[in-house]
Amino acid sequence: MPLDPLAKRLLVMMAAVAPNDRSRPSAEARRQALAKLMQFARADAAAATGTDGVLPGLGGDIRYRLYDPANHSTEHLPGFVFFHGGGMVAGSLDTHDLICAALAKTSGCRLVSVDYRLAPEHKFPAAIEDAVAATRFVSEQGASLGIDAARLVVGGDSAGATLAAVVCQQSLRDSGPAIVAQCLICPVLDFEDTSPSREAFAENHLLDRATLEADLADYLPEGTDLADPRISPLRSVKFAGLPTAIIHTAEFDPMRDEGNAYAGKLVAAGVAVEHICHDGMIHNFHAMGAILPQARLVLDLIGEQIRRALGN
């Protein structure tokens, strides 16, 4: 299927205002760019509102934002631990505020958005340490947040989906928190190999090669093994026993092939998977509901899938 006309128009507009210098962008430039892009997120007046708090982590307190879809009901609801995207360098509680509020509302979960440490100030594995600590906290202290820890989802978008996949793999390996489902949206899952989609969409498809290389250079200490499953979850050797997976990829996303391959490996290992590769869409499309009608629909669909995975 061809590139969606509205997505194509967005890419043309972005190319028109992009700097001529395509050398490595700074971390600050990437943070500003993501913040501007996320202004196109779906605005939903009926969405859940968030309350900020902190939880303990190895590197100090970790900020989080708790979204309550039930208007402060005393009922314990399923929990959704969410990690924002941004290449481990950009993104924040604020950039993903509308996305998290919408997902809390559509899924019926109390959603905990985690403000994990970012590179280059905090290199690998700081973000993973925070993701693991946050998931453990919600699992152990969920009652204090109005969460039923027996119905726990872990998820994220882009690099946040990397963290979600790693948390699920480590939880399985280390007998960690019980996770019912993982939700991976446009996931980044393999830096050890260059897939055909990474080559085909390396330029002019929102997330370009220069940005990916800059993110990786800022995130990883020199000499880090790219095949480490904590960096490339697709390179794990064990998939059997992982939580039910909800995976959304996009046809014109550089990360398409690795997300599709991850879904395939899970299915081959006997894991229940709901996977959709969205025709005509680009990376991060789900976060552009103000422009792309398909983005508005996918957040509703993800909510329905999570409800099914939780037996609701």
List keywords for this structure.
single chain; 312 residues; alpha/beta; eight-stranded mixed β-sheet; 8 strands; globular
General description of the model:
An eight-stranded mixed β-sheet has the order 1-2-4-3-5-6-7-8, sandwiched between helices. The mean pLDDT is 94. The chain has one domain: 3-Layer(aba) Sandwich (Rossmann fold). Helix content is 36%, strand content 18%. The chain starts with a helix and ends with a helix. The chain has 312 residues and is of the alpha/beta class.
Topology, pairings included?
Elements (H helix, E strand, L loop, with lengths): L4 H13 L9 H11 L11 E7 L6 E7 L8 E7 L13 H11 L2 E6 L10 H16 L5 E11 L1 H15 L7 E5 L10 H5 L8 H11 L24 E7 L5 H13 L4 E6 L14 H17 L3
Parallel strand pairs: 3-4, 3-5, 5-6, 6-7, 7-8
Antiparallel strand pairs: 1-2, 2-4
Helix pairs in contact: 3-9, 4-5
Number of helices: 9
Gross geometry:
globular
Mean pLDDT across every amino acid position? 94
Write the H/E string, N to C: HHEEEHEHEHEHHEHEH
How do you describe this structure in short?
The protein has 312 residues and is an alpha/beta fold.
